[in-house]
Amino acid sequence: MTEPEKRPEAEPTPRASVDEGLTLTVFVALLFPACMVCLFWFGSAFSALPLNLLPGLAGAAVLFAVTTIPGSGRWRPFLQKASTAVAALALVVLAVALGWNAYRNSITIPNFPEVHLDADLYQPFSGDSQIARLEGEAALRFSGEDKAPILDGEASLFPLCAAMVNAAYSAEDFPDYMGGKIAGPYFNTMGYYRSLGIEEVDIFFDSAPSNGAGFYYGEWDTPSWELEAVLLGGQGLVFFTHADNPVEGLTRDQLRGIYSGTITNWAQVGGEDIPILPYQRHWNSVIQAALVRFMGDTPLAQAPTEERRYLSGHGGEYLADYRNSPGAIGFTFSAYAPQLLEEYHIKLLAVDGVYPDGEAIGQGDYPVTDPIYMVLRPEARTEEMDRFIAWALGPEGQELVARAGYAPAAKIEQ
């Protein structure tokens, strides 16, 4: 009996090669959106590197990988190696960019200083609070039977506002002032005009109005009310630089020279031969407005800028955030200084030989202070508001101003 002829077995399909190509394709396809997402979130930092090539590199890797799946032509090995190389290069570029971004963040002080004030440290009616206190009971004490004024203030004046609440208000009768709230919603400068107008706040502790105040004021209809500003004291405008900078202090004239552009090198003020980078704030910042007032008739030089590119298509020259390089100099309000000193490798500069600590500012010895006011609507004044204002301007109130690290009103030149 003749055995049936065996048919030759078909050669196995090169499944492994297809799977390898598919795996590589999925890997690189996922790499591309990851690169794009990272570029979006860290776009401002990526702009410092030639990373416009990054999406193109990742896209090329996807293209190369896709071409390796169909067929098994003679170009297949080359395309597989090329796609792997391009993907590896994209990963290296991404890793370098993320590392550079992390470094830049570590030396960057954002232009939003209120993040550098921990309000939990200055809560009224708290035994472990760092709030300033009088030695004895205050002569003014509001109880639940009084229509006590609702207080609020800009972020840099939170410690002072909270100290006055702690001294003149009763914890039992005013529990809403506890737990992170001073005046309920705790407005800042951008919203205080509105808060006063709709009577959510009676007295607002504020710096002299900035350009930004007028800008945000315009977001609402033209008001039919007037505002009154009563001088309460002043807060220090302090200047800082890299902690390793050998310069320990500057004069007011030197500071004006730096920010007007006539002094451009630290060697001109006794330091090393390093160009000065005088960083500024946004035009609508109350701190920038304080610098403008300090400069007087001396015009400010152009602030440092940096180029930023984003996936949305937007880009161009933007105001640079403070980068803590050896040549940098910046400024802020004194209330923000303690936390900045803890978080960054910086130091405060003495001005005219006076170091800007709370004692020097409270005694009126520090020469660069910016006025602070109690702002209110005159037609909305009540007897309780008059009592509070009189107390705040009296011996106890002004002592509390000094104890909180602000300059008393008598020391402020308007």
Question: What is the element layout, followed by pairings?
Answer:
Blueprint: H1 15-41, H2 43-46, H3 53-66, H4 76-106, E1 108-109, E2 151-153, H5 158-168, H6 192-197, E3 203-207, H7 211-217, E4 228-242, E5 249-250, H8 252-260, E6 277-278, H9 286-295, E7 305-309, E8 315-319, E9 322-323, E10 328-333, H10 337-343, E11 346-348, E12 350-351, H11 358-362, E13 369-376, H12 383-393, H13 395-403, E14 407-408
Parallel strand pairs: 2-3, 5-12, 6-10
Antiparallel strand pairs: 1-9, 3-13, 4-10, 4-11, 4-13, 4-14, 7-8
| Largest pleated sheet | 8 strands, mixed
- Alpha carbon gyration radius: 31 Å
| Anisotropy-based shape | globular
Helical content band: 25-40%
- Return residue spans where pLDDT drops below 50 for at least 5 consecutive residues: 40-52, 178-187, 210-222
- What structural category do the secondary elements indicate? alpha+beta
* H-E string: HHHHEEHHEHEEHEHEEEEHEEHEHHE
Mean pLDDT: 78
**Distance from first to last alpha carbon:** 122 Å
What do you see in this structure?
The protein has helices spanning 15-41, 43-46, 53-66, 76-106, 158-168, 192-197, 211-217, 252-260, 286-295, 337-343, 358-362, 383-393, 395-403; strands at 108-109, 151-153, 203-207, 228-242, 249-250, 277-278, 305-309, 315-319, 322-323, 328-333, 346-348, 350-351, 369-376, 407-408. With 414 residues, it is of the alpha+beta class. The strands form four sheets. Strands 2, 3, 4, 6, 10, 11, 13 and 14 form an eight-stranded mixed β-sheet that branches. Helix 1 runs antiparallel to helix 3 (53-66) and helix 3 packs antiparallel against helix 4.
